[in-house]
Design brief:
Layout: H1 11-40, H2 45-66, H3 76-89, E1 95-96, E2 105-107, E3 112-113, H4 115-131, H5 146-160, H6 165-181, H7 186-206, H8 208-218, H9 229-238, H10 266-299, H11 303-327, H12 345-364
Antiparallel strand pairs: 1-2, 2-3
Helix pairs in contact: 1-2, 1-10, 2-12, 3-4, 4-5, 4-6, 4-11, 4-12, 5-6, 6-11, 9-10, 10-11, 11-12
């Protein structure tokens, strides 16, 4: 590696990350302390767990911001294969559903771990490394785009079998974004879309509950006590928030009305307690986060750094879009949490891990 002048990291990205984490810790406590008191006998139960994972994630972010991102190429295939092994372990005795009905976690006794989050980051890293290879001939589909798409299909099947269609689609979309930015010919894009669309439709209609969720998204009041319940309760949370909210800690919907108020539907609690102003502030922070990620991608010194930054940013942007779309009734309900804000150890850790990589790329960017 040629020696480059040391540059400062993207301080705007650091600032917005800390602001989102701070809001997340406050809102996780606000949304969960009553449930934690009732179910765990400790109002700080979820806050404490989240704070520990945030601390570990910040350590990972700092370390990754100091390690030259180019070194990650050497470990990309190993990390991807390791993530596949961990995904396979979910279907053994180590797999647990954490009371959600979907077996997405590995239970190691002292802590639980969600391999899907590791797989998403590993796949971005592998795809960026593979598609930026100097020996790659992008016009040859079978020796270029086909390989990461095949591996993405395998990961997709692992994840959708948990079941977790939302995360599977995010992983697939992230891989496609990187491949498109690498220069995949338009003809191949059209053929890929024509082949993939029927398969996605078949997966959606195969499971009756997925089809019901789709119809409930179109008209949640058609089945208000079952498939439409989540969306309706989210509306009941967002509506009373008005401009400035009902006040921090004063949400009514978090009192066993709104499902997973500290996790998937935490944005609804933000809207209820902090109102339109608070919800808009969170959206603006995410806008800045995504903007800085795109800027790093555009000014990265090499193709690998550019594709890697774009993939990490795309993954974060898709999660934000899907979660807020779900909470506001703009998209069907799926188990995607809000990055850096929702409770979830694996999610916040690997999001911060990825942001650490972004910060390291920013140290090498063209000014």
């Amino acid at each position: 590696m040629k020696k480059e002048p040391r540059r400062e990291p993207d301080y705007a990205l650091i600032l917005v990350t800390f602001l989102l984490l701070g809001i997340g810790l406050i809102m996780v406590f606000s949304a969960s302390y009553i449930i934690a008191e009732e179910e765990q006998g400790d109002p700080y139960y979820f806050l404490r767990r989240q704070a520990i994972w945030v601390a570990l994630g910040l350590l990972a972010m700092y370390l990754m911001s100091r390690v030259n991102y180019r070194m990650l190429r050497r470990f990309s295939l190993f990390m991807l294969l390791l993530s596949f092994i961990l995904l396979a372990l979910i279907f053994t005795g180590l797999g647990t559903d954490m009371g959600t009905g979907a077996k997405r976690w590995l239970d190691f006794g002292a802590f639980t771990f969600q391999p899907t989050e590791f797989c998403k980051l590993s796949f971005v890293l592998f795809t960026a490394a593979f598609m930026s290879s100097r020996r790659l001939r992008i016009e040859n589909f079978w020796s270029s785009s086909f390989i990461p798409l095949l591996l993405a299909g395998i990961a997709f099947l692992f994840i959708v079998s948990q079941p977790d269609l939302g995360s599977a689609l995010i992983l697939l979309a992230g891989a496609v974004v990187i491949i498109l930015l690498a220069g995949m010919p338009f003809k191949q894009v059209v053929i890929l879309a024509l082949v993939s669309l029927p398969a996605l439709v078949a997966i959606t209609i195969k499971e009756p509950y997925r089809l019901k969720r789709l119809f409930s998204f179109l008209d949640p009041w058609a089945d208000p006590t079952e498939t439409g319940y989540h969306i309706i309760q989210s509306f009941y949370a967002l509506g009373p928030g008005h401009i400035f909210g009902v006040g921090l800690g004063r949400s009514r919907q978090k009192l066993y009305y709104l499902p997973f108020p500290h996790n998937d539907f935490i944005f609804a609690v933000i809207g209820e307690e902090l109102g339109f102003v608070g919800a808009t502030a969170v959206l603006l922070l995410f806008f800045v986060l995504i903007w800085r990620g795109l800027k790093i991608s555009l000014t990265a010194p090499d193709t690998f750094g550019s594709l890697l930054a774009a993939g990490i940013t795309a993954m974060l942007a898709l999660q934000v879009l899907i979660n807020i779309g779900m909470v506001t009734g703009s998209l069907p309900v799926t188990g995607i949490n809000l990055p850096l804000i929702s409770a979830g150890g694996s999610s916040v850790f690997f999001n911060l891990f990825g942001l650490g990589i972004l910060l390291n790329i920013s140290r090498h960017c063209r000014q």
